[in-house]
C-alpha cells in the first residue's frame, strides 16, 4: 500500500483528520447497523459471560486506550479489570487465572513488551484477545482471537487514528461483554450503540475547532511544563494529551487525575504553566470545576475542553474550547481530537519534526 500525505503538511495532520472516517469503518465492523446492536466481526466472536476477570496490557498510547476500556468493562459488564503497561505486567507476576482472557492492544502488533506479555499470559493458560491494526502482525498471529481496528496505515510516529479506533473497538467489546453478562438490557445496549453511531459526525464537528486550537500554539510553545487534568474516562485522555505533547513538541507535560492535583502537581502551578482541563458536563464536572478554581487562584492558565453546558458553568479561563454535546460514554473518543490538534499545532509552531520526532520509533521491537 502506498500512502501519501495528500494535501496535508504532515502525516499526523492527515491521520487526525481521517478519524471520523476510520472510526466509522471500525465501528461498522462491530455494529449491526440495522439492529442497532453489537455484532462482533466474523471470526472474532467471544463470549464474555463466564469470565471472572479480564487482564489488559499494552504500551504507550495503546495502554491509555486500555485504561479507558477498564472504566467501560467495569461499568457496563461488571467485569473486574487488571491493567498494566506491558513492560511491568509480566515481571509483576500477577496471579493469572487459566481460561480467563487477556486483551493485548497494539497498533503495529510488533511491540516487543506487548508480545512478550502475550506469550507470558498464554503460557499461563489464558486465552488471548488482540486489538490490533496490522492483521498480519506477530501479535495478531499468536492471539486466539483478533479484534481488528480498521485505522488503515498509520505513518506518524505519534499515534492518533489508531488510538481512537482502538477505543471504538474496545467500546464495542465492553458493550458485548455487558450483554453477555446480562448487565445491559436491550434498551441500554441500543442507547450505547446509537451514541457510537453518532460519534463520527461529532468527531467532524470537533475537527472544526482546529483554527481555535491552533491559536493557542504560541502560548504552549513558550511553556516549560504543561498539566492535563481529567476525571473518570477523561483521566486517560489527559494522560494521552500529555504524551502527545511530549512526543512531538518536547515540552514537559504531565497528565493527572484532577482529584490528585492537590497531592503534588498544584505545587508546579504559576502563571507560566498552561493547564488543560478535560471536563465534559457530566456528573463529575462540578468536582473538576473546583479543581480548576484551585488552578486559577494560583494564576495557572486554564484551557478548558468542555461542552456548551460546561462552558456556561465554568469560571474564567484563558480559553474555553466548546465541543459538541455527547453521551458521556463516547466523550473520550471525542476529546482525543482537540488534544491531538493542540500537540500538533504546538509542534508545528515550534518547527519540530512532527512525523519523525527525535529519539522515538513508530514501533518498539526491542525491550
Ligand atoms: C511507540 C509509538 C507509540 C505507540 C507505542 C505502542 O512508542 O511511538 O505511538 O503508542 O509504540 O505501539 P503499538 O504498535 O504496540 O500500539
From TrEMBL:
<dbReference type="GO" id="GO:0097367">
    <property type="term" value="F:carbohydrate derivative binding"/>
</dbReference>
<comment type="subunit">
    <text>Homodimer.</text>
</comment>
<keyword id="KW-0963">Cytoplasm</keyword>
<feature type="domain" description="SIS">
    <location>
        <begin position="220"/>
        <end position="348"/>
    </location>
</feature>
<comment type="function">
    <text>Catalyzes the first step in hexosamine metabolism, converting fructose-6P into glucosamine-6P using glutamine as a nitrogen source.</text>
</comment>
<keyword id="KW-0315">Glutamine amidotransferase</keyword>
<protein>
    <recommendedName>
        <fullName>Glutamine--fructose-6-phosphate aminotransferase [isomerizing]</fullName>
        <ecNumber>2.6.1.16</ecNumber>
    </recommendedName>
</protein>
<keyword id="KW-0677">Repeat</keyword>
<dbReference type="GO" id="GO:0046349">
    <property type="term" value="P:amino sugar biosynthetic process"/>
</dbReference>
<keyword id="KW-0032">Aminotransferase</keyword>
<keyword id="KW-0808">Transferase</keyword>
<feature type="active site" description="For Fru-6P isomerization activity">
    <location>
        <position position="362"/>
    </location>
</feature>
<dbReference type="GO" id="GO:0006487">
    <property type="term" value="P:protein N-linked glycosylation"/>
</dbReference>
<dbReference type="GO" id="GO:0004360">
    <property type="term" value="F:glutamine-fructose-6-phosphate transaminase (isomerizing) activity"/>
</dbReference>
<dbReference type="GO" id="GO:0006002">
    <property type="term" value="P:fructose 6-phosphate metabolic process"/>
</dbReference>
<feature type="domain" description="SIS">
    <location>
        <begin position="49"/>
        <end position="175"/>
    </location>
</feature>
<dbReference type="GO" id="GO:0005829">
    <property type="term" value="C:cytosol"/>
</dbReference>
<dbReference type="GO" id="GO:0006047">
    <property type="term" value="P:UDP-N-acetylglucosamine metabolic process"/>
</dbReference>
<dbReference type="GO" id="GO:0005975">
    <property type="term" value="P:carbohydrate metabolic process"/>
</dbReference>
Amino acid at each position: 500500500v502506498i500512502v501519501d500525505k495528500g494535501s496535508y503538511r504532515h502525516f499526523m495532520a492527515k491521520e487526525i483528520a481521517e478519524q471520523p472516517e476510520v472510526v466509522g469503518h471500525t465501528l461498522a465492523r462491530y455494529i449491526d447497523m440495522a439492529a442497532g446492536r453489537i455484532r462482533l466481526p466474523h471470526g472474532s466472536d467471544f463470549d464474555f459471560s463466564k469470565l471472572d476477570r479480564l487482564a489488559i496490557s499494552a504500551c504507550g498510547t495503546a495502554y491509555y486506550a486500555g485504561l479507558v476500556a477498564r472504566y467501560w468493562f467495569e461499568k457496563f459488564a461488571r467485569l473486574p479489570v487488571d491493567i498494566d503497561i506491558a513492560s511491568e505486567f509480566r515481571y509483576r507476576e500477577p496471579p493469572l487465572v487459566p481460561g480467563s482472557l487477556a486483551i493485548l492492544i497494539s497498533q503495529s502488533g510488533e511491540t516487543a513488551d506487548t508480545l512478550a506479555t502475550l506469550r507470558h499470559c498464554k503460557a499461563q493458560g489464558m486465552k488471548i484477545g488482540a486489538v490490533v491494526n496490522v492483521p498480519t502482525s506477530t501479535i495478531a498471529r499468536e492471539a486466539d482471537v483478533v479484534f481488528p481496528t480498521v485505522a488503515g496505515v498509520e505513518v506518524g510516529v505519534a499515534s492518533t487514528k489508531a488510538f481512537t479506533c482502538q477505543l471504538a473497538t474496545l467500546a464495542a467489546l465492553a458493550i458485548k461483554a455487558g450483554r453477555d453478562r446480562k448487565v445491559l438490557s436491550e434498551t441500554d445496549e441500543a442507547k450505547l450503540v446509537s451514541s457510537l453511531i453518532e460519534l463520527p459526525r461529532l468527531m467532524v464537528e470537533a475537527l472544526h475547532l482546529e483554527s481555535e486550537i491552533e491559536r493557542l500554539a504560541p502560548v504552549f510553545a513558550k511553556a516549560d511544563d504543561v498539566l492535563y487534568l481529567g476525571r473518570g474516562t477523561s483521566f486517560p485522555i489527559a494522560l494521552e494529551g500529555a504524551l502527545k505533547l511530549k512526543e512531538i513538541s518536547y515540552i514537559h507535560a504531565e497528565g493527572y487525575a484532577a482529584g490528585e492535583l492537590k497531592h503534588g502537581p498544584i505545587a508546579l502551578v504559576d502563571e507560566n504553566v498552561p493547564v488543560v482541563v478535560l471536563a465534559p458536563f457530566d456528573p463529575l464536572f462540578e468536582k473538576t470545576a473546583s479543581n480548576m478554581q484551585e488552578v486559577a487562584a494560583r494564576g495557572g492558565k486554564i484551557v478548558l475542553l468542555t461542552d456548551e453546558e460546561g462552558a456556561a458553568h465554568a469560571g474564567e479561563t484563558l480559553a474555553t474550547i466548546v465541543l459538541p454535546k455527547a453521551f458521556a460514554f463516547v466523550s473520550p473518543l471525542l476529546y482525543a481530537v482537540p488534544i491531538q490538534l493542540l500537540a500538533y499545532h504546538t509542534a508545528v509552531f515550534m518547527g519540530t519534526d512532527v512525523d519523525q520526532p527525535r529519539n522515538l520509533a513508530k514501533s518498539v521491537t526491542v525491550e
